[in-house]
Amino acid sequence: MGRRVHWAGIGPNPLRRRVDRAEAWFAMVLTVAVVACGPVLVWRSGETAYDRAAAAADWQRNRFVPVHAVLLQDTGDFIPVYGEDGKAKAAVQAEWTAPDGTRRVGPVIPPAPGTAGTTVLIWTDSAGNPGERPDSDPMGAAIGVGLLIALLLVAVHAGVLLGVRWWLDRRRMAAWQQEWKDVEPRWSGRR
Predict the structure, then answer these.
(1) What is the pLDDT of residues 17-33, one digit of tens each?
(2) Contacts (Cβ under 8 Å, ≥6 apart) of 29
(3) Where are the bilayer-spanning segments (predicted)?
(4) In this structure, how many other beta carbons lie within 10 angstroms of the beta carbon of residue 31?
(5) Residue 142 has what pLDDT?
(6) pLDDT tens digit string along 111-133?
(7) Do both 84 and 123 map to the same domain?
(8) Total count of domains within the chain
(9) Would you tell me how many other CB atoms lie within 10 Å of the CB of residue 70?
(10) SS3 at position 115
(11) For residue 7, how many C-alpha atoms fall within 13 Å in the half-sphere facing its CB?
């Protein structure tokens, strides 16, 4: 235990100044606080992100419904359009039945290449207009937010410790310089 106290810098070393011991205590208390409260904060923020992403996914699932559409053209006949995910997508004419029972014809982006007459799954709103497939990932949102909060906690912890050390180092150097001004004339014999 004595080695740990010595390593932490809080032991009764006669060469340590009061400000050195205060810095060691501050670092220890801050670290214990981050270690004790950090996991709870990470868990709660991840849980909140999960709940919000799950609510968004439910909203998307309630807004868009899957329907089967029959392609009226081959997907290879058109110049591909690149989506946000970087994958090539080609809009082709298709026919489908809207949720209200009306037959609809219009351009759709099929999930995979196909030929005329191929049945594909598309997502439409309640009016039958094609839309994007709901792809909210609540678990991915929770993990991402949790990792971000954990990294932010580590960065804030390190920043506070470095800021306090910088401020205390300035005070230590000023005190050292003042002490040297007091001692140097007696030591060197100059007045």
Answers:
(1) 788 888 888 998 999 99
(2) none
(3) 24-43, 141-168
(4) 13
(5) 93
(6) 777 788 888 888 888 788 887 77
(7) yes
(8) 2
(9) 15
(10) coil
(11) 4
Scan for tokens 């999960």, then name that residue.
Answer: 50
Could you tell me if 77 and 35 lie in one domain? no
Tokens of 100: 């209200």
One-letter amino acid identity for 51? D
Cite the DSSP H helix spans in the chain: 2-8, 18-63, 138-188
Structural domain of 25: 2-56+138-188
Contact 96, 69 (CB under 8 A): yes
Per-residue pLDDT at 128: 83
Neighbours of 102 (CB within 10 A): 10
CA dihedral 173, 177, 183, 186 (to 10 degrees): 150
> Six-digit token pair at 50?
């999960």
Biggest CA pair distance of the chain: 105
